[in-house]
Design brief:
Largest sheet: none
Number of strands: 0
Oligomer: single chain
Strand content: under 5%
Number of helices: 14
Distance between the termini: 34 Å
Radius of gyration: 26 Å
Shape: flat
Order of helices and strands: HHHHHHHHHHHHHH
């Protein structure tokens, strides 16, 4: 009994500073690794359910003998048992080899690297614009909630967010690219460049092609950021520290900028990182509608064959980008709010 009392009275060993965060971070990174492996497995088996024979596509519709078809299958390893194909795929993926595209006869990683900059130009530009626009309008709507501006902003955001991006893109092409009634065609109907410009004229040409797809993405995506920011800020509006700040004589705009907005940014930071991961994936439908030569358009093209190595590789890259960005957001949380990760 005395021993138990002495043990209970003994001082607990203090946890070293930073140990809790390291344990928290290790758990998040470990979860990300498990998720990446799950994506690797899913990407292999999921797309083998797609109807169609990629070997027949590679023949270009020509009449070929069974021996020639068998030779194609041996060349790409399609004659092996499924488990051997999976083991080979996982082994190569761990070294960065995502296979060889059936239709392009080139390494998948090379095709991804070639199309990635185009996607980042489009979705990166849209990401910056709709994030800034959503945060500014969401902050103003929350601070003046219930007013006419709040109702108009929220209603427009909900309406645009519910519109399919491909439908809005087609509508913009009809009105502003093809032209309708008194409105002339002001922008290209698709593509990334005209093909005959150099130097600064090339930059202007690409920017001209960017306008409609960027407007489409911004219009559809900014509403989500606006609504999340507005909701988070409304939760902070009744806090005692804001009342105290006002009682000290601080102006409303200072109270909003210095106190309310920083404390309400945690959910918005999550959304920003998720959207940042999606910029790598691009928006498949928008890139397809506007014939933008990025990863989204490449995925659609590969899916129609089906070009299994290219589809698998793109799917893995898309998912990995989102997983990595979510993990980074989780690791940054404790820096913004020390209560997270304790």
């Amino acid at each position: 009994m005395a021993t138990d009392t002495a043990a209970a009275a003994a001082p607990q060993k203090a946890e070293r500073p930073g140990t809790g965060y390291l344990r928290y971070g290790a758990g998040k990174v470990g979860g990300a690794v498990v998720s990446l492996f799950a994506v690797l497995v899913t990407s292999f088996f999921l797309f083998r359910l797609i109807p169609g024979d990629p070997v027949k596509y590679m023949t270009g519709g020509r009449q070929v003998s069974n021996d020639q078809l068998a030779a194609y299958r041996r060349e790409f390893g399609l004659d092996l048992p499924m488990w051997e194909q999976f083991a080979d795929y996982c082994g190569k993926a761990l070294t960065g080899d995502l296979g060889t595209s059936y239709q392009f006869r080139a390494p998948v990683i090379d095709k991804i690297t070639e199309a990635l900059p185009n996607t980042l130009i489009l979705t990166g530009t849209a990401f910056v614009l709709y994030t800034v626009l959503g945060i500014i309008l969401g902050t103003r709507s929350a601070w003046r909630h219930g007013g006419l501006g709040d109702r108009l902003n929220t209603g427009l955001a909900l309406t645009l967010y519910s519109i399919p991006s491909f439908w809005l893109g087609l509508l913009l092409i009809i009105v502003f690219a093809v032209g309708i009634g008194p409105i002339p065609g002001l922008f290209p109907t698709g593509g990334m460049e005209s093909g005959n410009e150099e130097g600064f004229a090339y930059v202007i040409d690409v920017a001209h092609h960017l306008v409609l797809p960027v407007i489409t993405l911004v219009a559809v995506e900014y509403g989500q950021t606006l609504l999340v920011t507005r909701s988070a800020l409304l939760d902070e509006m009744g806090s005692d520290y804001l009342t105290t700040a006002r009682a000290k004589g601080l102006r409303d705009d200072l109270v909003r900028r210095r106190h309310a907005v920083p404390n309400a940014m945690l959910p918005t930071v999550t959304l920003i990182f998720v959207n940042l991961g999606r910029t790598v994936a691009g928006v498949i439908l928008v890139e397809t509608v506007f014939s933008w030569p990025g990863l989204g358009g490449l995925f659609y093209q590969a899916l129609s064959v089906p070009d299994l190595p290219l589809v698998q590789g793109l799917f893995f890259v898309f998912a990995a980008a989102v997983i990595v960005m979510n993990t980074l957001a989780d690791l940054i949380y404790p820096l913004l709010d020390p209560r997270v990760g304790r």
